[in-house]
Amino acid sequence: MTVPPRSLPLFLALLLAFGACQRPKPTGVVAMEPRPNPPLYKLPDNPRDRLRQNRWLAQFWEELTPAQRRRVEARMRRAQPPVASNRESAGMAWDGLGLAERDRLVFGGAAPARPSGATAEAASAEADPSPPKP
Fold first, then answer.
1. What number is the average pLDDT over the span 97-126?
2. How is the chain split into domains, by residue range?
């Protein structure tokens, strides 16, 4: 292959430009440690804040969506002792619960301190000072 003498300077200029434009090969990529995904959201610990985020807790049974009803029914069946055994009793029980009880039922948490049987009998005896029956 022969190059005409007039194109030799052009060919040398292109060869020089091509050599100057070549980039050095990049070095290997150093990978970072994978970071854990942050949680989507954190449920607040305060029942008041949970009520703000889940306004359906304040709704009557008939106003709940079918998914919310299924969630509540499942929680009522799992409660010890079970709060409701069927859909009708679940609706009546839900409407009778206060906001604090609904919050504990749906999100879990400590049960309210209730007096035991012996303590309740002692409290009622103090309130009613009638003479004991023979």
1. 63
2. 47-109
